[in-house]
Amino acid sequence: MSILNRLKIMSLKLISKINARTRITVFRLGGLFAVALLLLSVTSSFYESGNRKIVLTPVSQLSGEQLQKKPNIIVVLSEAFWDPTVMENVKFSRDPIPFFHALAGQYSSGWLFSPQFGGVTANVEFEVLTGNSVRFLSTDTVAYEQHVKTNIDSLASILSGQGYTAKAISPFHNWFANSRETYQRFGFSRFISMEFFNPNEYEGPYLADRAVAKRIIEETQKTDGPDFIYANTMENHYHFWPGKFKHNTIDVKGDLPRVDAGLLETYAQGISDADRMLEQLVSHYSQSGEPTVIVFFGDHLPFLEDDYMVYVDAKYISGESDPDFLTKIHRTPVIVWNNFAGKPRDDLNISPSFLSPYVLHLAGLQGTDYTNYLYDLSRKIPVIPPKEYYEKFHIQEADLQEYEQRQQAMLAGELTDQSPRSIAMGYGDPALNDYEPKEITAGDSFRTDAGRSTLIVRGGPFGLGSTVLIDGKPQPTTWQSESALTVVLPKETYASPGSLDVQVKVIDEKETVLAESKPVRIKVLSKP
Fold first, then answer.
1. Does the CA dihedral 430-435-439-445 come out positive or negative?
2. What are 206-241's pLDDT values in tens digits?
3. Reduced to 3 states, what is the DSSP secondary structure of residue 506?
4. What does residue 45 show for φ and ψ, rounded to 5 degrees?
5. What distance lies between CA 305 and its chain's CA centroid?
6. CB of 137 within 8 A of CB of 80?
7. Is residue 112 exposed (0-12), middle (13-18) or buried (19+ Cβ within 10 Å)?
């Protein structure tokens, strides 16, 4: 039995299958630079009288040699990230996303026109990573489950072809929305899923945003060349009822029911941590000495109960018949930060499917015929709404026919090399470097530093899915740290002389083995 199952994180199972995932992107602006640039960026914060104060500090200058390197591209899809301060009839005791607002005044930022509301993150992720549009698919589709059946060009495969190491990070089940197979078909070389996170990294019912930021930073520190990292988050996933987090530190006032205020206070607490994640990343890469682009965006607006309850009660919309319903309910914030190319300040208002062509273009990186076509198209038609809104958006259906035909060919596997692709899970096979005891007397009790009849296994890295097996049988496993696991050995396992084979496997909730150590052997001695 894995640590993940022993923790009985039942709330994770409450997630509707309509909620899949999407994450963040980084790209570089311009080509090669011969001079170092001094940039100002938000890199620290502190509290004063209950308010978070943002401090602008200089970004470390990069040398000419550093500026010749291709930049890290980091794309982060922040779960349900939105700016609730746009609701004029709601007042927050402090800005829940001050860091984002400070950056937005300095760097390219604006809105993505999300095809989703309240869930189905995977569809937004599909658009961002591949440039394909779910507007050309059925309205109830989950693209990863129904349409990704072959290798497909994505930012991962495109950048891998230019010397990048492409990794995906997700603090949720590797199997959810068919993510593991999809990332492999997209060309990622490694996928770090929740089974490789630590049990002490939760914030409320989900893994914390700071844990995702930690892994992004760690992964870029492991390589000498440029990295492409796509990550999504879970901390701010539905639900938003009070009690989700230990404390809500932002009060909400306004002409709305108290239940609505409670939902918004919980939501504000969640996006405040998302804002801190963005600050954590920018602060690190401001001083990293590596050219880096960070793209940070929300996948969809939060589901604040049936019939858009909070949005209607707050008078943000009158209902689905509101003339501005589509734009108010489907626009999510996006920002593009970099530490080397000055502060380009584009006002963004695009569909997610146009984000990767935009990134490649601004980064001065080579795209494909498809992404070049999409970039040109986005200059003419930046937003693709549902077909029934074409006229309102001044779009002729014929203008999108070539796009749809190219996408059909892409999904059919006609435009991409179909050679087998492979993906490594987590950090590879865990090491089993040491264990205690190395000998046991048959039938006798024993004690280690961890307690009576307790086996200690050292090595790692160990995480939520790490499970100790004795003679091939999974045992209830306790996570002590990334480098240590313990198991209380049932007396029947060492009742007779012989030996015990000990192994650590990373096992997911569906009992799929994602990684495994080499086995070691404990001697079981005869009684004197």
1. negative
2. 999 999 999 999 999 999 999 999 999 999 999 999
3. strand
4. -150, 160
5. 24
6. no
7. buried
